[in-house]
Design goal:
heterodimer, A: about 290 residues, alpha/beta, Globin-like, Transcription Regulator spoIIAA, five-stranded mixed beta sheet, about 60% helix, rod-shaped, B: about 130 residues, alpha+beta, Heat Shock Protein 90, 4 helices, about 35% helix
């Protein structure tokens, strides 16, 4: 509902806009959360102006709840701002400060009119701005979490590449912690690669796995069993001395051919597929020709 | 036995198990454990932390650096308020599992550490303490 007091409110906000804007920007640039440097003054001013414009539009429609339809454009705009702030590396406090800093100038402008009915509107507006700042926080955190989630997925995919060493010989260098979700990615990738490359032998290299406990061993055994069902033999390589000793104490038996290094495993794989690496000619004494 | 340093770590998720492992490794390196002993205590910690999470429903790990005379060591305590273990001898036996694992974790952790102590009360919880000395 649009009332006289709403009209009066809007006209005050419009009339006082230059002053509100000035002290708002001053408070953004000063204080304990400087927003300068990473954002140009002109950009900040544009954002502040747009936000006041949207606020006037929303108030003009008579809405007073930040969750209502009338505030949708304002919420979208604040969402965009806090998303970009999150990406630029602003702290949550700095992001919330953008909207909270508008509170004092607006409330002052309303009180400054000396009209008690307008001064009474200051309280709902201040609460409205609080709601909006919560909204910016929610968007800020959601976009941070989005980034973290995406990075997690990227790591999961990046760290489980299947590489072809030779015709029919695949290698899977495992790096980092093998938890259940990553292991399923590993297993899927390997089994798919076995099909795609028509591989006979898959070398699983665990040089980059810091700890091999029973869970990791179990994941390995399951992967090996699945590969075997598809007709591919597995060789486990990269078992370091301390890991070997620990696995013996644990009582884990990997019923699979294993080698200390990836090179040994590759040599074995070549032998099994009827191939051999031979020196084409004797090494040159000068050391220039080492083919 | 004087305790030089204590870390208390919650075990609520798979990431916490990783964090426990990292803390134990850092402490083991600090007191100068050999690479093999580091790996042993870290692996034992991994087994017990995962047991705390999977069977105890989560709990807490305490990582302590202890001094006894001239020797130094790491002592780990895993505590949960879970269902408890009805038959300890059976749980410690190899290849016994109630959760679909290999059934080697508890017995393996015992073999990987110098000291091993477990107490469990059905309906109250379980506490496992292990230590590895330099």
């Amino acid at each position: 509902m649009v009332t006289d007091s709403s009209d009066a409110l809007l006209s005050v906000l419009a009339k006082e806009e230059p002053r509100i804007l000035r002290s708002w920007l001053e408070s953004l640039n000063a204080g304990d959360s400087p927003q300068t440097g990473r954002i140009r003054d002109a950009e900040l001013r544009t954002q502040a102006q747009a936000m006041l414009q949207h606020l006037r539009d929303a108030l003009g429609s008579g809405a007073s709840d930040a969750k209502s339809e009338a505030f949708a454009p304002l919420r979208d705009m604040l969402g965009d701002i806090s998303r970009s702030r999150a990406l630029q590396g602003f702290t949550p406090a700095e992001t919330a400060h953008f909207i909270l800093a508008a509170k004092d100038p607006i409330v002052e402008a309303l009180n400054g009119t000396g009209d008690p009915s307008l001064a009474a509107r200051a309280w709902p507006i201040s609460r409205l701005l609080d709601q909006l700042s919560l909204h910016t926080m929610e968007v800020f955190l959601a976009s941070r979490e989005e980034v973290i989630g995406r990075q997690g997925q990227e790591i999961a995919e990046l760290s489980t590449p299947v590489v072809q060493l030779w015709d029919g010989i695949l290698a899977l260098p495992l790096i980092g912690t093998l938890d259940s979700s990553r292991t399923s990615v590993v297993m899927e990738n390997l089994l798919q690669a076995i099909v795609d490359e028509e591989a006979e032998i898959a070398i699983i290299d665990i040089t980059g796995v810091p700890t091999v406990d029973t869970l990791v061993a179990q994941h390995l055994l399951k992967t090996i069993a699945a590969a075997r069902l598809m007709g591919a033999d597995c060789i486990v390589s990269g078992i370091r001395p301390q890991i070997a000793q620990t696995m013996v104490h644990l009582g884990v038996e990997l019923n699979v051919v294993s080698k200390a290094t990836l090179a040994d495993a590759f040599a074995l794989a070549l032998r099994r597929t009827g191939r051999a690496v031979v020196r084409a000619k004797a090494p040159a004494p000068t050391g220039e020709d080492r083919t | 036995m004087p305790v030089a340093k204590t870390d208390r770590l919650p075990i609520r998720s798979g990431e916490d198990v990783v964090r426990v492992r990292q803390t134990v490794r850092t402490r083991a390196i600090e007191i100068g454990l050999s690479l093999v002993d580091q790996t042993k205590i870290v692996t034992a910690a991994s087994e017990l932390a995962r047991n705390t999470l999977d069977y105890g429903g989560g709990g807490e790990a305490r990582v302590e650096v202890v001094h006894e005379g001239a020797r130094r060591g790491v002592r780990l305590t895993f505590e949960d308020q879970g269902p408890g273990i009805p038959d300890l001898a059976k749980a410690l036996a190899d290849h016994f599992t109630t959760g679909g694992g290999l059934g080697l974790g508890l017995g393996g952790a015992k073999r990987l550490s110098n000291e091993f102590h477990i107490e469990s009360t059905v309906g109250v919880g379980t506490r496992v303490t292990i230590a590895r000395w330099k």
